[in-house]
């Protein structure tokens, strides 16, 4: 398998789900072995953050989203764009942005994925480099659990248990076609009570009933589900985006029980500390 980048430069505009800030992205091709880089064009000296250079513990997660960086050089809500890059196999790309939070678009990875496909995918000369496990890794917190086991493919088993939604199980091997059809369109969600509390705390400023499934007693409010288990699939989407912070594509069988961004990032830290790559 060869490394991939995008063929043409493309612009994506939108509003951050949590901050409500308007943001414009410019996605550009990048050479082999360069990885994924973010540039904050709104900051002095336009600092660059390459995902492989992140020191975990400096950054991590903010409430309801994944945040990487340190001090003013932060990138918030990375999970949906990174899920799209992971799902379609983009290894090398430069993402210029003029605000702190990536756009929410429709609350899923579908808009990012469509834009990347529109830009075109260019196969590069170098072989794709995977992060390969030699032994299982796991972490837990309370009744949440997350583990990854060595495997030749990438698969996820995820159990969701959420107030007002119930308990659901997902289990699938995920390749490019499966991701595009079954995972990428799944939108972010919260309960009706959570939505009110988040607004009180100054979060969710860019959220609405179209880009966020607000789950009431009888299902989503002012919306319809794209999948009967759409919240569950979105948790898998978030997990894929967070795991891509390891800096390389990951092979393995992932087992997750009620895992969220904080636990996902803890596992990413363990993946990076092993430094097993080829």
Walk me through what this model shows.
With 278 residues, this protein is an alpha+beta fold. The protein has a domain at 2-128: Ribosomal Protein S5, domain 2 (2-Layer Sandwich). The chain has six helices and 18 strands. The strands form five sheets. It has a five-stranded mixed β-sheet with strand order 2-3-9-4-5, with helices on one face. The model has no long low-confidence stretch (mean pLDDT 92).
How is the secondary structure organized here?
Elements: E1 2-6, E2 10-15, E3 22-29, E4 36-40, E5 48-50, E6 59-62, E7 65-70, E8 73-76, H1 79-88, E9 93-97, H2 110-119, E10 121-127, E11 137-141, E12 144-149, E13 154-162, E14 166-173, H3 176-183, E15 189-191, H4 192-200, E16 213-216, E17 219-220, H5 230-243, E18 252-257, H6 261-274
Parallel strand pairs: 4-9, 13-18, 15-16
Antiparallel strand pairs: 1-10, 2-3, 3-9, 4-5, 6-7, 7-8, 11-12, 12-18, 13-14, 16-17
Helix pairs in contact: 1-2, 1-5, 5-6
Q: Kindly identify the CATH topology of the domain at 2-128.
A: Ribosomal Protein S5, domain 2
Secondary-structure element order, as H and E? EEEEEEEEHEHEEEEEHEHEEHEH
Strand runs, count: 18
- Let me know the average pLDDT: 92
Residue share in helix: 10-25%
Widest sheet: strand order?
2-3-9-4-5
